[in-house]
TrEMBL record:
Keyword ATP-binding included in the entry's annotation: yes
Keywords in alphabetical order: ATP-binding, Carbohydrate metabolism, Kinase, Nucleotide-binding, Transferase
Single GO MF annotation: kinase activity
Family in the record: Belongs to the four-carbon acid sugar kinase family.
Gene that this sequence comes from: oiaK
Protein name: 3-oxo-isoapionate kinase
Length: 470
């Protein structure tokens, strides 16, 4: 595919956690866009090594940051994307929009990145149907449960998990109100009924909303056809001279790809997902998520030796000795060829106030454990469960990027890790949010998964490209 920006990549995205960033990476790569996901904005040497790119991503951890940390992080990203000539800057948030004024504020993100986007339209895409996330008249709804046929749909403020999130509970379903609480006073909206009236009427409706110079315009999403309409608006309002800021889950990338395919009249360009082969050796999974779905996945992981991690001991005064003992309990079986699942103490044990107080530091402790394990045993495939755990643990590794390899299920992707250290470069890594994946996801990670995918399909790939070999 040609680079439609005429210079650098036309599409740039920042993931406010690593798991969501890999999902966006997957959607763009499967559409035939040559895409790389980096951990920091690239310098000239890195860009030269990577060659032509259609899209570029930065995997971050803004979802866990207070505003005084979030603002400089995103300013660096915005400046980098501006230098590259990116036309669409996508601030990728969780599909449940969980955020708060004091942690992962979407309002802070919009105000910061808008400085690098001259387009008057800030598009907030409110749903992602393939993940069963829907936005209707500005209100967000989401499914809960692992069984696609038995999932119930909840308004987000009544969702059994997201309404009780330990850091950013979603207690407001109206995304306009949710964003207003984060400092965006004027959020206009386009409801789903507008899409049926056609492109011209939709554009007229949008023009009317833009007259008030809104902080953002929220778009309802009920099905995939709505994304095609939204994608047309995004690409129409974005240019090299006036980049556009879009906010939302991977549905922003889906909308963008729909618009590209329609413009090129090449709907067949998107490649069917390639299957994931069985792991060649033992697999290590680190589950820091405390969600009920991850708990189900742990219970279904029958092929793994399980090692429990106590949050209090992982983060207490004796943490170094405790972590060292847990690392030994993990590394020994891995060296013997046994797959291992290390998981934090489940929900029943988290009712105590002292245990809950340890939760903010738990992802950092998990990162220390992962570093120690990978320093002692070379693995082909690793899985990490939990948005915060994934972001912090992968950032702590001596690596610089990820490229798409294969999907496991909706919202869950296996990537190839890129690092300058040969023992890490090329490692296959799955990052998943707590609410994502099938019940047998960890078994799929070990045994491989075809999911009815076309084995002959191709997508742009990045082989291991460590600096020593470049």
């Amino acid at each position: 595919m040609s680079d439609i920006s005429g210079g650098g990549p036309a599409y740039g995205f920042y993931g406010d956690d690593f798991t969501g960033a890999t999902d966006t990476l997957a959607h763009l790569a499967r559409a035939g866009l040559r895409t790389i996901l980096l951990f920091v904005p690239p310098d000239a040497a890195r860009l030269s090594m990577l060659g032509r790119l259609d899209a570029i991503g930065i995997a971050g951890a803004a979802r866990t940051m207070p505003p005084h940390e979030q603002q400089p992080e995103l300013a660096r990203v915005g400046a980098a994307f501006a230098t590259l000539g990116v036309r669409v800057i996508h601030y990728k948030v969780c599909s449940t929009f969980d955020s708060a004024p004091q942690s992962g504020s979407i309002g802070v993100a919009i105000r910061t990145l808008k400085e690098y986007c001259a387009s008057p339209l800030v598009a907030v895409v409110g749903g992602q149907p393939n993940l069963r996330r829907y936005c209707v008249f500005g209100e967000l709804f989401a499914a809960a449960g692992a069984d696609d046929h038995r999932q119930s749909i909840y308004r987000i403020d009544r969702h059994p998990t997201m309404s009780r999130h330990p850091v950013t509970p979603m207690n407001e379903a109206d995304l306009r109100v949710h964003l207003r609480r984060q400092g965006l006073e004027n959020v206009q909206s386009i409801d789903w009924r507008c899409y049926a009236r056609g492109d011209t009427a939709l554009q007229t409706e949008l023009d009317d909303r833009l007259k008030s110079k809104p902080d953002a315009v929220l778009f309802d999403v009920l099905d995939e056809s709505h994304l095609q309409m939204i994608g047309g608006l995004i690409t129409c309002h974005a240019s090299a001279q006036a980049p556009l800021l879009a906010v939302g889950a991977s549905s922003v990338a889906q909308a963008y790809v729909c618009a590209l395919n329609e413009a090129a009249e090449q709907g067949e360009r998107s490649a069917a997902p390639t299957p994931l082969a069985r792991a060649c050796g033992p697999v290590f999974v680190l589950a820091g998520s405390l969600s009920p779905l991850t708990e189900m996945q742990i219970a279904a992981a029958h092929s793994y030796l399980r090692v429990e991690l106590d949050p209090l001991q992982m983060t207490g005064d004796a943490a170094p000795d405790y972590v060292a003992a847990r690392v030994a309990a993990i590394v020994g079986p891995l060296r013997d060829g046994r797959s291992v699942l290390a998981f934090t103490t489940r929900r029943a044990a988290l009712a105590a106030d002292d245990t809950r107080s340890a939760l903010p530091q738990l992802p950092h402790a998990c990162a220390v454990l992962l570093q120690a394990v990978l320093g002692k045993v070379k693995l082909q495939r690793v899985g990490i469960a939990g948005g915060d755990t994934s972001s912090i643990a992968v950032r702590a590794l001596d690596a610089w990027g990820l490229s798409y390899l294969a999907p496991l299920s909706a919202g869950v992707t296996v990537c190839r890790l890129h690092a300058d250290r040969s023992e890490l470069d090329g490692m296959e890594i799955m990052l998943k949010g707590g609410q994502m994946g099938d019940a047998d996801l960890f078994e799929q990670l070990l045994n491989g998964y075809s999911g009815g995918f076309n084995r002959s399909a191709q997508h742009p790939t990045f082989p291991p490209v460590s600096r020593q070999g470049s």
